[in-house]
C-alpha cells in the first residue's frame, strides 16, 4: 500500500486489510501520535466501535522479540484518512470520493486492474459476486414478468395479434439491451459458434 517511497506491507486476512498505527503513519505521512489521536477521536465520537475494528497480531520487532500488536481494519484506515490533513490524505480522499461517486451514479464500482491481476480475491468473493449476478437476473425476470402481466390485463389484449407480438419483442429487446447492451438478435449473432 502507498507509493514506492513510502510503501507499507499490509496484512490481508478474513477479506480485510489490517495495518498497525505505525503502518498508517507511514501510509498517511504523519506521526504515530497523530494516528493515535485520530483513532481516539473516531472511537470517542462513536464513528467506529473500537472492538469491531481491532485485531491483535503477533509481530517481530527490530529487537527480535515477538509482540501482540493492535492492527486496525480497513474501516478504521479509511476513517483516519478522512481525519488527517495533508497532501497524502487529500490524495486519498479524492480517490475515495471518486469511488463513492461511481457507486452513487452507476450503482457499482470496479477495480479493473485488480480484477485483471486477480490479487486479493478469495473463493468467497467470487461466490458473492455470482450470487449478486443471480439476484440481478432474477429481478430482471420479475420486472419483465410484471410488464407482461400488466399488458395482459389490458382490455384489448389479444395474445395472437401482431401488435402484441411486436410489443413483447420490443420489451424483451429493451430488457436485453439494458442488461448487456445488445438486442436479442445481436446477442444470438454475437454468441453463435460457426465452428
UniProtKB/TrEMBL annotation:
Coiled coil: none annotated. GO terms for molecular function: DNA binding. The keyword DNA-binding applies. Keywords: DNA-binding. InterPro entries: Virulence_RhuM-like (IPR011204). Pfam families: Virulence_RhuM. This is DNA-binding protein. It comes from gut metagenome.
Amino acid at each position: 500500500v502507498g507509493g514506492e517511497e513510502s510503501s507499507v506491507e499490509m496484512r490481508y486476512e478474513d477479506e480485510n486489510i489490517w495495518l498497525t498505527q505505525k503502518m498508517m503513519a507511514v501510509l498517511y505521512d504523519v506521526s504515530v501520535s497523530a494516528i493515535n489521536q485520530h483513532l481516539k477521536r473516531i472511537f470517542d465520537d462513536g464513528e467506529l466501535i473500537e472492538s469491531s475494528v481491532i485485531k491483535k497480531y503477533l509481530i517481530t520487532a527490530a529487537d527480535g522479540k515477538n509482540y501482540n500488536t493492535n492492527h486496525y481494519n480497513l474501516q478504521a484506515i479509511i476513517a483516519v484518512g478522512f481525519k488527517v490533513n495533508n497532501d497524502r490524505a487529500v490524495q486519498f480522499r479524492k480517490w475515495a470520493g471518486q469511488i463513492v461517486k461511481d457507486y452513487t451514479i452507476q450503482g457499482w464500482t470496479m477495480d479493473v486492474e485488480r480484477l485483471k491481476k486477480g490479487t486479493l480475491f478469495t473463493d468467497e468473493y467470487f461466490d458473492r459476486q455470482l450470487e449478486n449476478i443471480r439476484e440481478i437476473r432474477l429481478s430482471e425476470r420479475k420486472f419483465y414478468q410484471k410488464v407482461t402481466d400488466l399488458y395482459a390485463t389490458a382490455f384489448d389484449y389479444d395474445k395472437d395479434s401482431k401488435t402484441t407480438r411486436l410489443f413483447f419483442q420490443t420489451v424483451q429487446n429493451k430488457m436485453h439491451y439494458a442488461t448487456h447492451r445488445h438486442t436479442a438478435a445481436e446477442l444470438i449473432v454475437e454468441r453463435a459458434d460457426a465452428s
